[in-house]
Give the backbone structure.
Amino acid sequence: MPSYSEFSAHSEFEAPAPAVSADGKIRCDACPVMCYIKPGLAGACDRYANDNGTLVRVDPHILLERTVSEGGDLVPFGGTKGWDGSLVPNPEKFVTAIGAGTTYPDYKPAPFIVSSEVEGVDMVTVVTEGIFSYCGVKVKIDTDRFVGPEQSTVRVNGEAVGHVTTGEYGSQMLSLGGVHHLTGGSKKEGRVTCDALLDLCNRKPVEMTVDGGATLVIEAGKAPVVNGQLEQRMRVGCGSATIGIFARQWLGKADEVVVVDDHITGVLSEHQAGKLLDIPDTGIKLKGRRSTPGRYFQVAEPGTGWGGTNIDDPLAILGPFDPKTAWPGLRLLMVSTTGEHHGYYELDEALQPVRRDLPGALVESVERIAENCEPALSTVLFIGGAGGSLRAGVTENPVRLTRSVKDALTYVTCGGAPVYVWPGGGITFMVDVTRLPDNAFGYVPTPALVAPIEFTLRLDDYEAMGGHMGHVRPLSSLRQGVDLAQRADNPWPFAPHAARRSHG
Ligand code: SF4
């Protein structure tokens, strides 16, 4: 266990005074593990510690400060400064759940239920660090490269932590965590899954392998590494889309262009874009399955070569040119959907493609494909469910919180970041982990992830839903915390309420 003295700041966690045993140990009751913690040490999750007989939340409580005022300057996100406790107008501060602590069992009121006045309206924000035993992450990996067959198991340190799910629009997708891996497998599987989710959510790199596929290094907000290769670019579109975008730029500079793509390979002369530009037939023949004119599926197997296929030689996807149509000297450009791979050929007298240097007239078009690709990133979305027992810390009548969220009377944030709440039952939300402050996620060894969640609503709505009114306290009553500037691209959490009022 780490020594509590390693930590320089902690929140003013206000648990009922825990029982202190004769040897000075205290019992933490913030989660089902119920650690006995020796003086000067932290509990199993490193979140709570015994500070001379007082149970304290180790990490500082994070408050967000609105950084944009009319005519004001942006304050860079990430810088921290101690909060001297001085009062500023309430709308300028938002209490997050990061470092606020957890209450257990759930019927106890959330750790902080904070009132503030926003543009003349009394608001309340209920914050808690929720324990999410069934949570997961969805990972979007911007790469054409084959990461593994759909439904294949994804492993970390040999343990199954999730699977490859449907790839969409030039990105490979993973679904990791969830109830079956966190709690439904072996103890080790649950622990490894929890560790992997925690690192991904806190934006640390995680190495994983896909059964029958690639080794990946994923770090939220950074380029993915596939089989040791750092991915640079996300494709501009599928092969057909690339033909559609650049057809005019190839006119007169090449007789035929093939854009190699594992999903849809495009052929200029057959494609509608080529037809509209009166590009003549070339007698080219592609392997694979023709979908519609100039659009071919399955020209090769998936892989880490050209355009997410397994080929290194693009001519491998061509059959012989039709001698009735093709002609010696025919100029052929073959290019991948990122421009990373390209080759230029001219047909000889036997109508065989012969590789030549890329003519200057085509260099720009290839460079433009690359230029139009966005940087490849790994995106990690945390998915948590706040529609269960956690609601009891907000209201004595939990279903009213669910209804209030669905009715958009209650605004849900995760560490001050905006979330997407899924339609349907429960309060299942997704959040981009890069929009939260650093190290906003924690864990408990049950195993489960700990994530901040805040509910912001009007005070009168809170009272009407059966909120814990006796525990509402003003913002000014919080004495310890660390201010962070709210990211400029995150909406201010009170703003949706102000907007709703202004629209009646
Ligand atoms: S794991 Fe953490 S939250 Fe749970 S009882 Fe131990 S110290 Fe408290």
